[in-house]
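Progress narrative, work stream C.
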Amino acid sequence: MSDAEFADKLTAFCADRFGEGELSGLNRLSGGASMESWAFDYGGREMVLRRLPEEMAERGGDADPLTAISLETQAELIELARGRGVTAPEVLAVIEERNDFCKGFVMVRAVGETLPHKILGNPDFASAEARLTEQCARELAAIHAIDPADLPGEIKQVTPEMLLAEQEQSYREVEAAIPIYDYAFHWLESEIPTPAEPKLLHADYRMGNLMIDADGISAVLDWELAHLGDPMEDLSYICTPSWRFGHYEKTAGGFDSAENLIAAYEKASGSSVERSRFDWWLLYNTLWWGIACLRMGHSYRDGTAHTLERTIIGRRASEVEIDLLLQFEAMRKAENRALDWAEPPLLPDSGEVGYAEIVNALIEWNKEKVMPGTEGHALFEARVANNALGIMQRQAAWGQKRQDAASERLAAIGTTHINLCAALRAGERDLDDDDLWNHLRLTALDRLSIDQPKYGGFRVAKERWLES
């Protein structure tokens, strides 16, 4: 569907629901890997359309099948939460399937900013950031306090066992082989917590899904994964390393410590937090994001979401390797041995022009010739393209040598990559084995230095693991 046709159909829908008016300022908002948000004005009112991308709507979306809820249920749940004191946007209209231009719903457009890199550490949001710990805890407590009996019937109750089994099934279907992921499945299965009283969970509660204005949270967004479960799943989710957005040491969303968030939640909810349960869910959520990255990368292959962004998200699975290793590091009985690891030069200064240099020229061309002339979502896509080119450049320069080094390390500890994954999943090998531990750390550093060298966990890992 062309942009003009989409605008015409949206105008017709708004006229039918809200009366005659003029539609203006239709603009797709940046980000959103599985759902699209379109800002627009109609009849003098600021609105936003939340919809499935066309190609995903045709295939039914790609959210977690175990917990995914329909757009109609999302709209109903948002209105229920809003009526129970949660800071949620007002839903104005649901677009039913009989409308042939999209599946989605229209809301009042909340005022503020969602992009974490524009909020965290920004002096303009300093006052809001100082309130986030208390506000995040209060909003979560309000969500968890909603009576399950009042929820739409589509909201499912799920157990840790069900969630873990679903994630492992996704991992096996993608046919990935990441040793620390296999060990994480073993550990999570071995340490699974006792059942908790099921509460309504937002299940995607993090920076990026919270609209922030000068006073703090102005809207809780993106409810498509909501389900009934253990409240610690929600509380720990905002502490997932990938949701700290460059502020890695601030374990609660990049704005505070997990300890302070837990204390604020205990005060707001009137319930106590069992730290071992919180830690189990933190590790689960860390792994969940890694599996989500693999699954989104796979959606490019199967055509569910054939976009460049999905391939880049797929490579973010290596971030989670570092995150898991840093979490398991605290559980090891043995002390770390300093690693001898360094980044070699990226570009040669003599000889024939290499592949990495050709890619470097493409990066410079995109940055200097293409990006200055783009804006909005097109600029976002141009930045994604540069990220993709950077991965290709680093792989061309370093990939083969690092793969050869990994093969030598595996031979020295008497295994292969695939056999190591199987042994870790079965609990037949242990992270207290220094040679194995060092191999996993070196491999994670190698992979992440290619895929996402600006990731905060990469810096932290180097500070902890490398020789000074």
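Work stream C, second folded protein:
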Amino acid sequence: MYSIIYNASNLVTLENDNLKEGPRKGSAMAELGEIPGGAVVYSAGKIVETGTSEALLKKYPDPIDLIDAGGRLVMPGFVDCHTHLVYAGNRSSEMLQRLQGATYLDILKAGGGINKTVRATREASSDDLKRLGMNRLDHMLKHGTTTVEIKSGYGLDEMTEHKILDVIGELKSSHVIDMVATYLGAHTVPKDRDRCEYITWLKGASLSAFQKKAEFFDIFCEDGAFSKEESIQLLEAAQSAGFRLKAHAGQFNDLGLTGVAAKMGAVSVDHLDHIDDHQIDLMAETDCVGVFLPGVPFFLKTGVFPDMKRFRDRAAAFAIASDFNPGSCPSFSMPMMVSLAVLHCNATLPEAICASTLNAAYAMGVGNETGSLKAGKKADFIVLDIQTLDELPYYFGTCLTHCVLKNGEVVFQSEI
């Protein structure tokens, strides 16, 4: 029993049998495995085969379901490997403050920023957070995202961090998008806690409390958050407790954590607007993925976008993600991140496609399950209302999704 989607103007598979498994680096990121006039055969939620429509319709003559892509482009679903999706409230007023000259760090130090969202999230009920999360996931699905990483970090106390991670667990069982949970208690030190006491809690009791609810441990290494030394101590403790590692680094300042985290085995280090060549070289020696978040400098108007060409030239793996959050990037759209990567970050279009699908999947530990249209992987793909790949970044800020298939089932269909 199999199904076929056929008549794609271009089928982007990201498959190449000559490339090794794992996150792609350098010129390998440009290998998109495109099939003009392509088709996908899938069964029981998994991909069976890709090829030309003509060949596969002959090979599989009696599908139980036959979907005509109508000459549109078909590609893997987007993988958003860095989000802060579960929170209450919003920070639209802070955007106006920044337009009047305040910086992100100014607002954070004055008790706004993360701390404002922490207060709202602590006050919200689990039902409210789930309702908000479902709505945000629906928006992401509409823009073609089929897999997403979600961080905690807007609780910063045991009760609220439990509440957030429990809500993520409920979302996993309620929404069609696949999710991976990350514990980000080390987002910042809350205003109501002593710094030394809070760090001691993070390194000790918090790890055992949340180990069964999150796969990853993350930390924000930045002025106003955690120092390099504090970050290393926390990452070492989390790794010893059984967590896989991630880190926020180099958003506003390069404190030197990136290379250390990569050598510790971190799956990804994210932001990297400020990073020196030595740190990139250390990443290139590992499979740690540098995750760029181009929506953040765009929304914060920092004027400093990450330079993805430096990662290409030094053969380090990179991905892109939305960093959906209330303060620095309230955007659901991975296609918009592709546009920003191409227009502002020196990424080529093929690199941006790889970075938002396959490499993003590896950046959240699911590259063997999704991110490319390879036989045996999940049948997660999207049909975009364009004919050529270069139209994707060209129509920036536009929802181009015609339909989304998740595990072989149509889960979104445009009414246009």
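The two ends are 31 Å apart (CA to CA). No further action is required on this item.
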